Model the fold of this input.
Amino acid sequence: MEHIAQTPDPVLVVSDIHKSYGTGAKRKEVLKGLSLSIPAGSILSLLGANGAGKTTLVTMLSTLMLPTSGTASVCGYDIVRDAKQVRELISLTGQFAAVDAELTGRENLIFFARLRGLSTSAAKIRADELLERFRLADAARQLVGSYSGGMRRRLDIAASLIVKPRLLFLDEPTTGLDPLSRRELWDLVEELRDDGVAILLTTQYLDEAERLADTIVLLRDGRSVLEGSPAQVRSQFGSQICRLELDSHEQALRACSDILPARLGLPAESFTAEGLTVSFTAAGGADDLTRAIGALKDADANVDSATLAMPSLDDVFLDMAFEDSAGGGAAVKDNQTAGDAR
Done:
């Protein structure tokens, strides 16, 4: 069941943000009029291919880069005009851990707490609280260089929460983590959301967006091309997908080339065989599923299982994230490095 945000009041509001680099013929637009908002206690996930503009947006919203045009505010404070106030309300966890490997976990947190203005005694108390909360108390006095990737990531997020932010930026926080560490980090992110923190998450992992996001925004070429809850994004994408598992690959190939095209009146290219599984877009929904099973039964092809479901986020991402701006199909753009590697 999808999470429902605690309040509709927006913490982050982005309105028609543009970002470009260079001038004249060398001018490169990275963001082209992006608008979005995030309420308190909600997670918005940005998805997109490399170069879509995700990291550029996070860099601007965290006051580290000026927009070319448009506005954005955090709790009513403008990111340009009120940058100092905005920085007091946000925290950023980037793609790479910012902690010092030559210090212990506890020393790292005390250091960051002192930077945020806490007294020495208050910094030690806050460090111990965070170490306990992030399940790092047993490793508190170990050098961070000896930590696993998952432990470092938890410590990195703990450091960003020395002072509880109203808005937390997580830029691909689980890249390179093993499956168990990823799930542990997901649990922590959900706890932060439940505490009322608004979170902007960028990720390349579709299962991560499916698990965590209340709202997904799919970026392509600097623009939003889809927005909604994971279920809404899938439903906007198109018809249901029918998948049929047969006894053999030979049966699957025959189903795709002959049996199903004849019964459903679709070209053979509409059907795909992967191993024992045949899949196709079922514009007719359950009727198409029933007709397909009937056709295979009449042809003495045994159906071991049959499913009908909305497209997965993988289907949506692969179909939409890589299309060129002219809509000419899948076109992955290489080396889009005008300040945005993600």
